[in-house]
Write a structure and sequence with these properties.
mainly alpha; transducer; HAMP_dom; cell membrane; Tar_rcpt_lig-bd; transmembrane; Four Helix Bundle (Hemerythrin (Met), subunit A)
């Protein structure tokens, strides 16, 4: 039975389909493209998680600054109040003994308290200008502000003025009736705000740890896929390129030795198949 040329072309097309008919250059470009896409994907995932971690670290840094500012306000306010109490005692001793050295100590303590209060007022102004955007943090900030003003206006400032006027009865009355109570309320607001900031920092750190682990998993998956692609490329090129070239070398050796009896079967239509057909 004679096979028509048309049927021969169809059978050749059928054999040329799939990887056996792909050109070596095309396979190389496909493999390089896959590796390039893999590198881009891994790089994109790493950049995304790096950006997320950067945001978490920025949030932690801002919260640290706010917590530090609030704690400084609390420490300076406490320092100022203690300095006022010590200054009052020195003033009373100086009035009783007419000791210039003790009087100077009282003036120094009062000046120290005034400096601390100026630092508190500056920190408070900066704090009000940079209120957090989070609703809970803003609520706690407003509560802190609402406890600061009465503490300063009803407690600290009248005590300073009473010391300047050497009105010790008013000084101790204001301290006992307003200063102590306002101080406790202010400290409670400070503690509530600090506790919230610590909670937010712990949450942000936990998120950063999760994102970091996800980034490691994504990079590990990319490395694994890359290894699988390398193995697949080695197998494919071994079967479609290396093995046919080794067989071609054997055929050429037989032809060079004058052995033309063995038939060469062309299985591919790529560069190796063209080499066999020639």
């Amino acid at each position: 039975m004679q096979i028509s040329p048309k049927n021969v072309k169809k059978s050749r097309r059928a054999r040329s389909r799939g990887l056996g008919g792909a050109r070596i250059g095309s396979m190389l470009m496909s493999g390089l493209t896959l590796f390039m896409l893999l590198i881009m994907a891994v790089g994109g995932v790493a950049a995304y998680f790096l950006y997320q971690n950067g945001r978490s670290l920025n949030a932690i840094s801002e919260q640290n600054m706010q917590a530090k500012q609030v704690l400084l306000m609390s420490n300076h306010m406490l320092h100022a109040r203690v300095s006022l109490l010590v200054a009052a005692r020195y003033q009373q001793e100086a009035s009783a003994s007419a000791d210039a050295a003790v009087k100077q100590k009282a003036a120094d303590m009062l000046g120290d308290a005034t400096k601390m209060l100026d630092a508190v007022k500056k920190s408070f102004t900066d704090f009000r200008k940079n209120l957090p955007e989070d609703s809970d943090a803003r609520r706690l900030s407003v509560k802190l502000i609402s406890t600061y003003r009465p503490y300063l206006d009803d407690g600290i400032d009248p005590m300073v003025q009473a010391l300047k006027d050497q009105d010790y009865a008013t000084f101790y009355y204001v301290n006992n009736q307003f200063g102590i109570e306002r101080s406790k309320t202010f400290e409670k607001a400070i503690d509530a705000y600090s506790a919230y900031i610590e909670k937010q920092q712990a949450a942000a750190y936990a998120v950063a740890v999760v994102k970091f682990r996800q980034a490691l998993m994504a990079i590990g998956a990319g490395v694994l896929i890359g290894l699988l692609l390398m193995i697949a490329a080695r197998i494919i090129f071994g079967r479609l390129v290396i093995k046919p070239l080794v067989q071609a070398g054997g055929h050429f050796d037989r032809i060079a030795g004058g052995d033309l009896t063995e038939r060469i079967e062309v299985k591919t239509r790529n560069e190796i198949g063209v080499l066999y057909e020639s």
